[in-house]
């Protein structure tokens, strides 16, 4: 039905349990990585304008490979972290998987905790020109969530995986 460098949209004919036919629209996007950069009690977030909601959003660094390519999730995570923040992780631990929106999208996201961080060069894509990045304490981050200043579902779900790991 539609394709660009980041996604395809398809419409499938489906047969329901009662035997009737219907259609199902699916957004296919490549595997994504979400990275939680952590240095002690600090978390590194990025902020950018999100066109569909017409607002800026604070979130953990995340992304997919260009041209809908499928890339090893750990490699993708390291690349996205460096690209968006300039940070290079000495250690990258897998926390778990997320389905972005399983009712409409096939995209699977892999969540990583990045630690032992050092500064490197930032090399953002053209679409990330307006991106800002900064450190927040865990308390500041959690207060931003309470005040609905961090509302990105992927970021919130990734943070839950981090909290569960620490229990």
UniProtKB/TrEMBL annotation:
CDD domains: NUDIX_ADPRase_Ndx2. Residues 27-158 form the Nudix hydrolase domain. InterPro entries: NUDIX_hydrolase-like_dom_sf (IPR015797), NUDIX_hydrolase_dom (IPR000086). Pfam families: NUDIX (PF00293). The keyword S-adenosyl-L-methionine does not apply. GO terms for molecular function: hydrolase activity. Keywords: Hydrolase. Its cofactor is Mg(2+). PROSITE patterns: NUDIX (PS51462). SUPFAM superfamilies: Nudix. Gene3D superfamilies: Nucleoside Triphosphate Pyrophosphohydrolase. This is NUDIX hydrolase. The lineage of its organism: Bacteria, Bacillati, Actinomycetota, Actinomycetes, Pseudonocardiales.
